[in-house]
Amino acid sequence: MIAKPFIKRLEQILGKDHVMTEKADRICYSYDATQRQFLPDVVVHPGSPAEISEIMKLANAEKIPVFPRGAGSGFSGGSLPTEGGIVLATSRLDQILEIDEENLVATVEPGVVTETFQKAVEKVGLFYPPDPASLKFSTLGGNVAECAGGPRCVKYGVTKDYILGLEVVTPTGDIIRTGGPTMKGVVGYDLTKLMVGSEGTLAVITKIIIKLLPLPEAKKTMLVLFDSIDGAAKAVSAIIRGKIIPTTLEFMDSATIDCVREATDLEVPDTARAVLIIEVDGDADMIDKQAGRIADIVQPLGVVETRIATTAAESEALWKIRRSVSPSLRKVNPDKFNEDICVPRSKVPDMIRKVEEISQRHDVPIVNFGHAGDGNIHVNVMIDKKKPGDSEKAEAAIEEVFKEALALGGTMSGEHGVGIMKAPYIPLELPVSAVDYMKTIKKALDPNNILNPGKIFLD
Predict the structure, then answer these.
(1) 111 φ, ψ (degrees, to nearest 5)
(2) Residues of each domain in the chain carrying CATH 3.30.70.2190
(3) CB distance 253 to 354 below 8 Å
(4) What is the DSSP pairing of strand 105-108 with strand 86-89?
(5) pLDDT digits (tens, 9 = 90+) for 327-384
(6) Which of 82, 137, 378, 405 could form a disulfide with 454 if both were Cys (CB 3.0 to 4.6 A apart)?
(7) What CATH topology corresponds to 4-89?
(8) CATH number for region 218-327
(9) What digits encode the pLDDT tens for the residues 108-126?
């Protein structure tokens, strides 16, 4: 436990109202979407970079760990206070500081909710593409820390492609700025890119400079049902070979379709064994032509049915199928391990077949869906943790899934990060020399290992 004099110092910096020590309050910050739980000693809610700087100086001097936290929506355990210490919540830093309509740049604080920001820029005709599934509650600081993705990545890229600069507080309490509002800048090392995706282990983000795009005029949504996962995967490659880059290319495998059938009243033909949800955006006339062209391209590839939305309501109905997936999984089993492997998109059917074999071998249900356009598969291992042996089965299956993804030239995490959940598997993907290089960076920036310790690396 942290000593009372240290708590008093925190209260002097922040005020008593922004320092939480009651157990009931601390429990609220002890878990994330992984449902694993670690109780912090204290939770602080700073309201400025200067306050964060003072907290970090104090924590570094006393060698007390600090765990930055946004909305706690991560699937890798990145914000979990695994060693007690201080949870540093960024919820008070929730302002959109500027939307520069002339230069297509915005400056925000890390506690801004992703969807709130998207709606704000869209009101002035601008566009922020990254759209993680948690966008209604995840924060931009967390998105930057994990380099979040989402369905629109296939056309527009991930979070790192939109971060021009940052203001951060280092583990030793310095406030530094990286990058800036210009589209170009090559003075010194690219510290911005180093910080993006560093999972809160190198600095605490206090401001974010974001590149924006003009808002597309219109969009059109299609749902295409296939008689096999191979047909759906071939369709993805064929569409892109046809010089069309859709905004989204989402897929669901047969196990996912079965879940959707059971959990909703949506009509999906029995012969459908894979689904693609395809969306294009841009000029209104162009997207009509693109939708027609896509329908022609995929038709020979085992299409069971094609539905093209003509209104916003019809588009919403098609997306309802995708959004119903996560709630429907509980029909299989009450607990899940949600992994996010990524393989070359041409290898998606090979990976799905490997996952099916792993599922049968370990006698554990596995449901797959995700972003087919960039090969990002969400592998959901469904278990009942109360059932003896189920957790062990899941862990064995997950390791095999990672190995198979790597064998196909992929990665064990496309967008969720490493955190604590994937840290044990790092040696499967990265050589010792690469890990040592990363540890050298961490040691140089955080000599006392106080900022989000225990994440990414096991030692």
Answers:
(1) -85, 5
(2) 218-327
(3) no
(4) unpaired
(5) 788 888 999 999 999 999 989 989 999 999 999 999 999 999 999 999 999 999 999 9
(6) 82
(7) 3.30.43
(8) 3.30.70.2190
(9) 999 999 999 999 999 999 9
